[in-house]
Structure formats: C-alpha cells, structure tokens
From TrEMBL:
Keywords: Cell membrane, Membrane, Transmembrane, Transmembrane helix. The chain crosses the membrane at residues 12-35, 47-69, 89-111, 131-149, 170-188, 194-219, 247-267, 299-319, 340-364, 376-397, 404-425, 431-452, 464-489, 495-515. It is a multi-pass membrane protein. PANTHER family: LIPID II FLIPPASE MURJ (PTHR30250:SF21), PST FAMILY PREDICTED COLANIC ACID TRANSPORTER (PTHR30250). Pfam families: Polysacc_synt (PF01943). Coiled coil: none annotated. InterPro entries: PG_synth_SpoVB (IPR024923), Poly_Biosynth_Transport (IPR050833), Polysacc_synth (IPR002797). It is found in: Cell membrane. This is Polysaccharide biosynthesis protein.
Length: 541
C-alpha cells in the first residue's frame, strides 16, 4: 500500500473515532433531561463494570489482529490471516458469550459491591442496579466478534469499514438510548429503572447495527480478499497455538491501558456511597456520584480524546527509532509527543476549569456541585492523557511489562486514599484520589522511559514551562472576559451559557495560538503543517 493511501486510511479511522466520541458526548444533553441525576447514576453503575468486561474481552483485539494480519500479508502469507479470522470467529463468539454469562450472573454481587447495603441510598437499591447491569451485559455477546472483524479489515489496510461501523454503532445506540428512555417514561409511564435498562440495552442494538455494516463490507470485498488467497506463498506453517500466543502479546498492553480509567471509576462506585454515608451525606450520594462518574467525567474526557489522538500518531515513529537504535531520532520523537500532547491538553483543561459553570449548564443544568467538581476535575484530564501516551511509548520501546506495575500502583493509591479523602472533602476527595493515583502511575512510566530509552526531559521541560506560561496568560485573559460578561449575563440558561463559552473560548484560543505563532513554538511542534493551515485559513500571522 502506498504511503498516501496509508495516511488516507489513518485519517478516515481517526475521523470516525472523533465523530463517534463527539456523538457520545452530546447525547448526554437530552439523556440527562429525560432521566436526571438518578437515571445517570444508575447508568454509570452499569456502564463502569460493562466497560471493564468489554475492555478485557476486546481491548487490543482490533489492533492486535490488524498488526498480525498486516505482518503476514507483507510476507504474502495471506492464508495465515484468514486462518486466524476463521478460528477467531468461534473464539470471540465463545469469549463474548462467557463474558456475558459471568456479568449477568455476577450482577447481584456487583450491585452489592456498588451500594454496600440496600440502605446506602434512599432512591437506588441493589435490585435496581442488578437490573441495569444485566440489561447492558447482552452486548458482550456481539462486541468481541465485531471487534475481530474490524481488526481483520484494518490488517488489510482497509480503514473505512471500522470508521463507518463505529459511527453507525454510535448513532444507532444513541437513537435507541434517547427514544427508549423517553418512550418508557413519557409514553408508557414506566419507572426510571426500566428507562435506564432500555438505555443500557442500547449497547447491544448499536453493536448489531455496526455488525450489519461490517457484514455488508465483508460481502462486498470478499472477492478481492479471495484473490489475495490465490497469491499466497504458502511457505509459513504456523499453529493456532502460536497464532494466539502472538495475538496475546500484541493485545495485553492495550487491555491494561483500556481498563485503567474504568477501574478507577469502579473504585469510586464501590466506595463512594459508603464514604458519603459515613459523614452523614448518604441522602445526596446518588446525585453526587452521578455528577462525579457520569456528568463531569463526560466533559473531562473531551480534551483527553483529541490530544491523545494527535500525540499517538507519533508512536509508530518512536517504535521505528528505538528498533533502529537511532537515539537522536528517538529523543526528537519523544520530545514531539510530549509537547504536542501538553500543548493541546493544558490550555483545554484550564479553559474548561475556568468555564466550568457555563460548560456544565450547557450539557446538564446550572448546579453548584457540578460546577465545583468540574472545576477541580478538568485539570486531571492532563494526567489521563499522559498515562495513555506514556503507556503507548513504553510499548514502543518494548517495556510494556511495566504498564502492569504502574497501573496497579496507581489503583492501590486510589483505593487507599479514596475513602479518607471523600470523608475529608466529599465529592472532590474522589477527584483528588484519582489525580494522585494517576500521578503515581505516570511517575513510574516516566522513570521507565528515562531509564530504558535513555531519554532526558531537559528540552521538553523548558518547552512545557513555556506552554504553562502561555496557558496562564490565556487563562488570565479568558477569566477577565468571563468576569466582564457575567456582570451582564449570568450562565443560568443554556443559551446564555453557550454565548459565554463561545466568546470566552474565542478570546482564549486566539491569544494562545497567537503566542504560539509569535514565539514559533507552534512551528517546532507541527512543522510545515502550520504554513499549509495558514494558507487555507488565510491567516495574517
């Protein structure tokens, strides 16, 4: 495949991922309006364990399968990839069904772990949580199989099927979530538990929609795939045992990175209500948990997704430089990765923190607790992004075994501090515990990168300081504009909040990128792409 086609395929897949994530963000506006705090809390109670199950069952499968198939296709051993696919269909269906059974039958235990006792909250009990967990568990039957097909197409450098199926899956799921919850509550006069169960069951409906798209692509492209089989050299004889051993080696690091955030959330799910009840705040535990694990978390993930997508595109270059033992290139690639990540993430999180009240109001409602938690939670996005990227770099330098150590250390810090910090600072305590846990994990990752890649942080340290200075200037200007606007317009409605965010963001983005242009920092990070963008946008800078 030509370089231009490869770049085009990568762009299509990245675009599909971004569209899917954006859709996954904005559906919360109507969904929250329909089900409120109790409904979103219930939704989180089921979706966090589901995310862990699905991460273990499928995290890394598309990438691992695509890497395996691409490797043997390059050798013109096309039959090896088809052998994996044929056996993989049965394996993924089996693992999916087993995962479904485990989650379905352990749902009562998971519900008890979540709420500790049936009297932990006044409005949600273990039976309710069991119902919604079981509703979402059905998706496990389909999703692993679906991931295998995506990986198969990606291994043939065909990114369109994965991109289109992701978007279709999200659209179908969201339509079912919103329509199902609305009909249950407003047409059928059903309960909030039934409405949320329908909403979580939408994960299966979305997966089926994605599967239909992938099936269409399969039948459309099968003649071409069969032609490749006729060109097979047939010189490699590899057993299924060896195939799956190689797949597991590829997939394991992605599993640990994929389950990191859900595991941190699951610790909150197990301990939050108990800690709040111990300080006499049990009556607001459900609403506060919804704010923490669903409402603010959805917003905090925005800058993480976009910045990580940009920075991770540099990881293949890191792998190449490390394998070739090109230290100069490796150092340059690592510098670029960290700087691009922080250049995009730091100002976004500072802006989100400063505009916490109108941002939260746009997506949900004007709520003091939501504003307070989002203001503290937003900067933690920097740590989320750093963990993902440092873990990917460790894979690039073939030291992915330390990912397990760093993740377990971070989880231990979170588990040890969560209850005492919640008892001291209520909902904000859970945010602080998450920040400290991620910080511990990142420090281990950075130590490993420094030691095994021989990397010095001196250059990136100076640039990061400059990024924080620029972000501080941007933050000061944004805050001044925000204070001036709110003298006349309060962020109490969605319309006024949108106006405030748009005006403040325009000022902040303008100042930040102006500083980047004037100091040439943006050229160091993005090179000639900046000039091409300037020509397209006809910027005078």
């Amino acid at each position: 495949m030509s370089a231009s086609n490869l770049l085009r395929g990568t762009f299509i897949l990245t675009l599909g991922t971004i569209i899917s994530k954006v859709l996954g963000l904005f559906y919360v506006i109507p969904f929250y309006a329909i089900v409120g705090d109790e409904g979103t809390a219930l939704y989180s109670f089921s979706y966090v364990p589901y995310t862990i199950f699905i991460s273990v069952a499928t995290a890394g499968v598309p990438l691992a399968v695509s890497k395996f198939i691409s490797k043997y296709n390059t050798l013109e051993e096309y039959a090896v990839g088809r052998k994996l696919f044929k056996s993989g269909v049965a394996v993924m269906l089996a693992t999916g069904f087993v995962s479904f059974l485990i989650m379905y039958f352990t749902a009562p235990g998971l519900a008890e772990l979540t709420l500790s006792t049936s009297k932990n909250t006044e409005d949600i009990n273990p039976k309710d949580v069991t119902t919604v967990i079981r509703a979402v568990s059905f998706a496990l039957i389909v999703v692993p199989f679906m991931s295998l097909i995506r990986g198969f197409f990606q291994g043939h450098q065909s990114m369109g099927p994965s991109a289109v199926s992701q978007v279709v899956e999200q659209i179908v799921r969201i339509v079912f979530v919103i329509a199902g919850a609305f009909i249950v509550l407003n047409v059928m006069d059903g309960s909030i538990v039934t409405a949320v169960s329908v909403a979580t069951f939408a994960a299966l409906i979305g997966a089926i929609g994605s599967l239909v798209v992938l099936a269409w692509y399969w039948f459309k492209r099968k003649p071409h795939l069969d032609e490749l089989l006729k060109q097979d050299k047939g010189t490699v004889d590899i057993s299924l045992k060896e195939i799956y051993k190689e797949i597991l080696v590829y997939a394991a690091p992605f599993v640990f990175v994929g389950i990191a955030n859900p595991l941190f959330q699951f610790i909150d799910q197990m301990t939050f209500a108990r800690a709040m009840k111990s300080i006499g705040q049990g009556d607001i535990a459900t609403a506060a948990f919804s704010v923490l694990n669903f409402q603010t978390h959805k917003l905090v993930i925005i800058p993480v997704s976009l910045a990580t997508a940009f920075s991770l595109t540099l990881v293949p270059s890191i792998t190449k430089a490390f394998v070739e033992n090109n230290r100069a290139s490796l150092t340059h690639q690592l510098d670029q990765t960290f700087q691009v990540l922080l250049y995009l993430t730091v100002p976004a999180t500072i802006g989100l923190s400063l505009l916490a009240e109108p941002a939260f109001t746009i997506f949900y409602e004007n709520k003091e607790l939501g504003t307070e938690v989002l203001r503290l939670y937003a900067p933690v996005a920097i740590l989320f992004a750093l963990f993902s990227v440092t873990a990917a770099i460790m894979q690039g330098i073939n030291e992915q075994r330390f990912t397990v150590l760093s993740l377990l250390t971070g989880l231990l810090v979170k588990l040890s501090l969560n209850i005492p910090l919640i008892q001291a600072f209520e909902t904000n305590g859970a945010v602080l515990a998450t920040a400290l846990g991620y910080l511990a994990a990142i420090l281990i990752n950075l130590f490993v990168i420094k030691k095994f890649a021989g990397y010095s942080f001196k250059v990136v340290g100076r640039r990061v300081l400059l990024i924080f200075i620029f972000s501080g200037v941007m933050g000061g200007a944004t805050f001044a504009v925000y204070e001036a606007i709110t003298l006349w317009v309060a962020p109490v409605s969605k319309f006024s909040s949108i106006m405030i965010v748009v005006l403040c963001a325009a000022v902040g983005v303008g100042i930040y990128f102006y500083l980047g242009f004037r100091t040439k920092l943006i050229y160091f990070l993005f090179g000639d792409k900046v000039d091409r963008l300037k020509k397209k946008l006809r910027l005078p800078i």
